[in-house]
Amino acid sequence: MSMLDHKSDPRFRERARIALANAPQRAAIAKATATISERRADALEDLPEWEAWRERARAIKEHVLENLDRYLIQFEERATERGAVVHWARDGVEATRIVMALAEKAGSGAIVKAKSMVTEEIGLNHALEAKGWEPLETDLGERIIQLDGQMPSHIIAPALHLSRDDVADIFVRELGVERTNDPDELTAIIRRILRESFARASFGISGANFAIAETGSILLVENEGNIRLSMGLPKIHVALLGIEKIIPRQEDLPLFLRLLPRSATGQRLTSYQTLLTGVKSDEEGPDEVHIVLVDNGRSALLGHPTDRQTLGCIRCGACLNVCPVYRAVGGHAYASVYGGPIGAILTPHLTPEKQGAELPFASSLCGACRDVCPVKIDIPASLLRLRARAVEEGRRGALERYGFRSWARAMETRARYERATKMLRRVQGVGLGDGVVPKIVQRSVKPLGAWLAGRAIRPLAPRSFRELWKDGISDD
Amino acid sequence: MTDARTEILARVRAALDAGGAERRDVPLPDVFRTAERSFDATTFIERARAVGATVTEVAPSEDVGEVLRGVLRDLGAQRVAISDHADVRAAVEGYECELVEPDAPRAELFTCDVGVTTAQLGIAETGTLALRSNAERHRLTSLVPEVHVALLRRDTIVPTLDEALAADADLPRCTSFITGPSRTGDIEMELVVGVHGPMALHIVVY
Fold it and tell me: Is A64 helix (H, G, I), strand (E, B) or coil?
């Protein structure tokens, strides 16, 4: 099981078409993304330092990534000194194996899990379930989609595509509770049920938002309290994190804590941040704390500055909320655990399959993502680089290649350009008429048909400006 | 077969080497500290209230224990979990209820309606409490019961996150930063207060 949804159609265009036809889901996504974007905008009012924060955060991330080997070693050393156990995992299979061995050791009792993108990415739950374990997602949104067997559709709000009625249906079907669509009551149901599991939890699984090299600490950010419970109650706690999560110093945390919640939910700060450093037997906490550093394709991004900046992402989801493509089609159309603009530039690196390579084309290159990114990732630059790579690898069709070659040839010299426009004027009468492209023409140029279907083309004028000028423009 | 650690570090180095000239030329920037200097205890109270915490100020003429017991009475607290801080024990002294001691079996905590702790710091910038595990056993007492009541000394309120997260020689294994009660927006972005953590947070500033 990889981070891609292989059950859905392999073509983005097809998945997008299905998503666009789902009116209730479109409404839910539109409402949610608009709400978060407004909250973010409110949170940024009267913040003269915002740009300085972003710039500093970008510089810190860049520095860390350029020196990642050194920082990883420092983190491991400090975390180990303080009593945590640090593991390394080349890929998802290896990370899963480490977690399973710990689950075995923790013995019977509930496995409580905090929301974590890297565990989604490596398909940890499915792997555990296949061996008979029952990891319980404890974040409300994550629990909702786990009950329904779905993938998350948003980095910070996994059930953003569902309406309260959808959630009500899922709860009636999967939990056998009496129907209610009241968010307060739905939340109370999950609280009641999960508290029973928390009370007998033996093993806690989480991610981490930041790992601090200087101290060997990890920091987790949340609102619900389920992460604190998942890390505080069990005998064994394991945190999985991508190798890019490192920041140099504890003193860098305030900067990132000012950027992340404002960008993610428009909060000045989320309800809880938990800073964990090792194990001390005389202080409250699990008997064992394990930290798994997961590569899973990340190291390959370090080789080029444009790719490398992708690893600066702090998973706030702001780029999803402002993206015109994401706002229209939602996360599931990307068929990856990482959707939206950041997903479109991260997924192709982490999955060699064609399904991921197609995602950089699911963008209008409008740049809204770059403008909101709290660590100033130039997402459009990465999209273009990945598009170029897909073309070089021959992943785009022959027709696209032929089309752009012809275009390039026609634009190369004036004579060719004039010949081409003359020819187009002659044939457009057949195809265009009033500008609306008839179905028959759409079908005959099939790959362009989908593009033409939604557009009225303005026909070329009978004579070009140049020709008019030559004959004395005032005549006309 | 090489082990994972060796191989990941080799991959990282190989990729960075392939990057060539620009490698490692970005210096580590200085620590960023906010220029904002106006935050004080009043800001703390205002911002804690803004995120749904209830704040009670103890006047110089009042006794913190009396104020705390008043808060517990208003909450109708019947089973109260306490941390192992001497101030907490002293403050609940005389309040009629079932007291759940810090060393009680964990299951007991799940049946408590209130947990009382102190907080080591207040952060004015965000209205946040910081609970440090090397000062007190309050990691679960502040989390599992329905309501969390925290005692906060006015003179421990710092202006910003910068002071609260300054380099620290004596790092606790767990620092919990708490801003208001637990909340979620996972269903249609509608704010629901009281998810897995406490349904309410009361701060007694003295």
Answer: helix
Which residue among A88, A140, A195 sits closest to B110, beta carbon to beta carbon?
Answer: A195
Is B167 in contact with A249 (Cβ distance < 8 A)? yes
Pairing of strands B114-118, B157-158: unpaired
Q: Which residues of B touch A87 (CB under 8 A)?
A: 4
CA A418 – CA A290 distance, rounded (Å): 69
Burial of B141 (0-12, 13-18, 19+ CB in 10 A): buried
Q: Per-residue pLDDT tens for A183-195?
A: 999 999 999 999 9
In 3D space, the residue among A278, A292, A287, A291 whose CA is nearest the CA of residue A235 turns out to be: A287
Domain positions in chain A are 12-300, 398-475
> Above 60 in pLDDT, residue B92?
yes
* Residues of chain B with C-beta less than 8 angstroms from the C-beta of A194: 196
Q: Is the dihedral of CA B75, B81, B83, B88 positive or negative?
A: positive
| Structure tokens belonging to residue B125 | 């910038």
B104 — contact with chain A (CB < 8 Å)? no
What per-residue confidence (pLDDT) applies to B23?
A: 62
What gap in Å lies between CA B201 and CA A254, rounded to an integer? Answer: 23
Name the burial class of residue B89, with classes exposed (0-12), middle (13-18) and buried (19+) by CB atoms within 10 angstroms of its CB: middle
Q: CA nearest A242: which of A264, A275, A209? A: A209
List Cβ neighbours of A132 (8 Å cut-off, separation of 6 or more).
none
**Candidates 3.40.50.1970, 3.40.140.10, 2.70.70.10, 3.40.50.10420; CATH matching A12-300:** 3.40.50.10420
pLDDT, position A1: 45
Q: How far apart are CA B96 and CA A292, in angstroms?
A: 47
Q: Determine how many CB atoms are found less than 10 A away from the CB of residue A82.
A: 18
Beta-bridge partners for A242? A294
Distance in Å, alpha carbon of A446 to nearest chain B alpha carbon = 39
Contact status of B190 with chain A (Cβ, < 8 Å): yes
Half-sphere exposure of A151 (CA within 13 A, CB side): 27
Of B16, B110, B139, the CB nearest to A302: B16
Structural domains for chain B: 38-205 (3.40.50.10420)
How big is the A-B interface in CB pairs under 8 Å? Answer: 257
Q: Which among A90, A228, A251 has the least Cβ separation from residue B167?
A: A251
The whole model's pTM is what? 0.93
